[in-house]
Amino acid sequence: MRFLHTFQLLPFLDTVASLLAAFVLGTLIGAERQYRQRTAGLRTNVLVAVGAAAFVDLGMRLAGSVEAVRVISYVVSGIGFLGAGVIMKEGMNVRGLNTAATLWCSAAVGACTGADMIAEGALLTAFVIAGNTLLRPLVNAINRVPIDERVSEATYEVRLSVAPESAPAAREWLVDHLEAANYPVGDVDVDEHGETATQIVAILVSTAVVAAELDAVVERLRRLPGVMHATWESSTRD
């Protein structure tokens, strides 16, 4: 058997230490994710860490550190595909980005242990757990702060619902009123909703506005003949 000729006790024990370290560190990361009922929990993070460690260790054993670096690049690419599988889009919201990033970090931990850098892997694990736990109060505090439209960067739209026969004039009124308030229009979309209403949407060039000013413009637009409804809204750029 070739195994009897290739087996070496000390390199084997080195592999055991690398995989065991990846298992323990992946468990620490995954336990926090499992506690918070995330899509990728305990087992997923452990398997990612152990798998990354196994591939890197195999490259080290067969061809040395140069080949291990090449294996690490493939591990990073492969984890990118795995992370994409846990990212879900629900309407305007995207979920799973933090879970995907955690899987990416678990792979980095496994790569460290597979390259016999167990101390570095433990340090990275501490940072990952701290990022997922200690930063949560800060995130919640920031989320509770009201958004100041004057300093936030977003896409702003002003919408009018008008009678179809008033659409051409309403389009001109919309552009004129916004430009008079020093909010130039980048584009205007006209969408006909049957024979009863036409929606006109003006997309502003500005990435920051004063809410009171836009409210005043919208209020003036509501009073124009043929205008059934007027409003404005914003959406983040990221």
Automatic annotation (TrEMBL):
Domain spans labelled MgtC-like C-terminal: 156-232
MgtC/SapB/SrpB/YhiD N-terminal domain sequence ranges: 19-139
Membrane spanning residue stretches: 12-30, 42-62, 68-88
Keyword Ligase attributed: no
Topology of this chain in the membrane: Multi-pass membrane protein
InterPro entries, sorted: MgtC-like_C, MgtC/SapB/SrpB/YhiD_fam, MgtC_SapB_SrpB_YhiD_N
Keyword tags: Cell inner membrane, Cell membrane, Membrane, Transmembrane, Transmembrane helix
Compartments where found: Cell inner membrane; Cell membrane
Main location: membrane
Functional summary from the UniProt entry: Virulence factor required for growth in low Mg(2+) medium and for intramacrophage survival. May be involved in regulating membrane potential by activating Na(+)/K(+)-ATPase.
Family statement: Belongs to the MgtC/SapB family.
Protein name: Protein MgtC
Lineage: Bacteria, Pseudomonadati, Pseudomonadota, Gammaproteobacteria, Lysobacterales
